[in-house]
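Example complex used in Figure S2.
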Amino acid sequence: MREKRLWFQIKRDWVLYAMLLPALLYFSIFHVIPLIGMKLAFQDYRIIGDNVWVGLKHFNVLFSSPAFLDVLKNTIIISSMKVIFFFPVPIILSLIINEVRNGPFRKYVQSVIYLPHFLSWVVITGVWISLLSPVDGGINVIRNFFQLPSLDYMTSKDHIRWVLVISETWRSAGWDSIIYLAAIMKISPGLYEAAKMDGATSLQQMRYITIPELLSTVVTVFILNLGFFMNAGFDQVFNMINDSVISVIDILDTYVYRIGILNGQYAYATAASLFKGVIGVVLILSTHFISKKVSGKGVW
Amino acid sequence: MRMLKKLTWTTAIIYGILFLISLSILIPILNLLAMSFSDPLRVHELKGLDIFPKGFSLINYEVLFSNPLIVRSIFNSLFITAAGTALNLFLTAMAAYVLARTNFVGKRLVIIFLIVIMVFEPGLIPEYLLVKDLGLLDSYLSLILYKAINVFYLFILMRFFEDVPDSILEAARIDGAGHFKIFTKIMLPLSKPGLATLGLFYAIYHWNEYFRATIYLTDPNKWPLQVVLRQFVVERDNTSLLGAQNVLSYEQVAALDFGSLQAGTIIISMVPLLIFYPIILKYYAKGALEGGVKD
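Predicted assembly (595 residues):
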């Protein structure tokens, strides 16, 4: 009886299923099939005929390969540098912007600092190659002004990781500050009024009201970012990498691209990217459950 | 006097810092703009912090716009962006309507499916092999179908759709309108701000996309602008930029400055963004806040 009603409902709502069908079909083909295709990590790729199961062969090769371990190290170093030196910048920026009254100047600043977010990393790399050019690039003009010799940052192993961190800041600090600004706006004005009555300066208001109220947003964003820790910014590195600095900024994703797409070692590359994916999922799931336990709020 | 009193030291420092930050973003871009409009014979005088051209010349843009590779790539980009965004919006909106405003058997299952998809990203290689197996290499379908629906954006649009009052949909239902009709005749027209926001999200993604195009399109005639730009600026390939030239004399070619041509290409790729920037600021920033999205 209940089954009959279920069938009746499904038949009655056929239009809904039909409307949902393109989306489900799309996800099944372009998402689920490649997801299942990750099994290639445990196989040898054959152009003709079926792939052959080889168990953990590729992973054994991977973990005994110095090249892979270097890439893993670079990924962790670059991501850590970004967490330490980039992550706080949008928070500080939002606190500074919050001190500026609504008006033309604030509008100007916000319009300008959001702009780089909309540029592709190809364009940003172009801008930065020019800015850091050893011949008359903006940064070297400043260095020369202080009697310092010109530096070729883009090909310098000592500097290129900092170029990654700083150009990431240039692109994203403004845009990322939006989420903190939104959180600041939600703070009850009553708190500030009470503080003003007590004679608190604007610096004290920031210290005792804005920053504590902002903390939960900071934690949420931090946790969300942790899920992407192993990414380390593929598009950025892919464009800024060159032969002189490949040893210090080659990361997991660029490595997968090179050995997989360029060299055609499909199975081996898939093993590397599966390893990365598993770490990513573990990070997302663990942060989700930690956050649920600590703040009662999960990632989704 | 009252104005002066209000201008304390801290405010002055804050305004100063923010102004410097804005300059750090504007000057490198304006410098490229100045470089692209400089006289090729005087461009060597232009230093990295200058924002006004040395002399004035349109020669760089004449060269760029008479280069078939560049002109074609601009049209390719426009086509991919328009077709891709249209398909994105249609598929996303239809799914969002069904998921946000109707009830049906299996809805929970679909939502769980979407969340699983959001968490598990397939790797690059299986995706590449799939595109290859489907015979989509060197076809724009590979770019348009890939990411045809972004799950994050789908959830954002569902929130916009939830804002449409129930009474309007109920009235249409009583009048005998079916779901598809309600979707096209009521939901879409009433959700224009949401659709505009999403359309911008998707359009910017397509305009800036270069990586999939790099690996899926081997025929340079099909390349979008970003791939050509990458070829010139990142890979420093100046032969395809100058090689296809026949409108200029040898002396003119000899006088050209490759850096200025690169600068011009960068500026061209930014033009659509700058045209739409006021609208982007209005919708995109708001949409990003409401969706809490971070890409």
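Chain B touches chain A through 87 residues (CB under 8 Å). The mean pLDDT of chain B is 88.
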